[in-house]
Amino acid sequence: MATSTTGVSVTREPPLLGQTVVVIGGSAGIGLETARRARAEGADVVLAARNPDRLNEAASDVGAKQTAALDVNDSAAVRNFFAELSAPIDHVMVTAGGPTYKPLLEMDVAEVRQAISGHVVRYLDVARNAAGKMRAGGTLVFMGGTGGRRVSRDLGIVSAAIATLPPFTATLALELAPIRVNLIAAGFVDTPLSASLLGDRLEQRRDQLRATLPIGRVVGPADVAALAVHIMTNTALTGATYDIDGGQQFV
Question: Which CATH superfamily hosts domain 20-243?
């Protein structure tokens, strides 16, 4: 007896369809790739960054709904940005800012204060101003790191600064529930920021990572963007830290 098989075509609805994703630091690197990925998954995207020229290029690239030239370290500017943003929004990702690499004894009091508290203050400022316009179940996604988990003279104060972020994230998730709050802890990511920090040592660093990482390649912005969008779409995730470093912290 002959049997026949009928093929069934299943069309997947984009998981971010009808949602709005705000990316602060969205003009390059991880932020831009996250915006690109979110758009591919159906979201409307709002980009904010300091450099207006790069911001306009990024907006054209991803088809952003709205842009704003914004210094996330300026509390008044952050407050005005969210006040003028049309509600509701669903997800906010902040990638702006980077680590401070300097020997401890060469840092003055202001530099230490900024290095230790800078990310926490910045993220709290965004959370405080964004929360009132976010839908329940939406998420704030912040960036941390894994590289500073091993204390060394070269890292200086970075290890201490990074250590504050997981408990901060977990506590904020409890306070803001049902809005979700999560942290991405990345190792080396091949971005323009990494290139600016390493200069002519960039290719050497890439070669080293290709030779030593368990995944056999360098982590790129698209890898982190995929994780960020997963965190946005999986509504069971909150208060957690997600490592993405290709196994760098183990080798």
Answer: NAD(P)-binding Rossmann-like Domain (3.40.50.720)
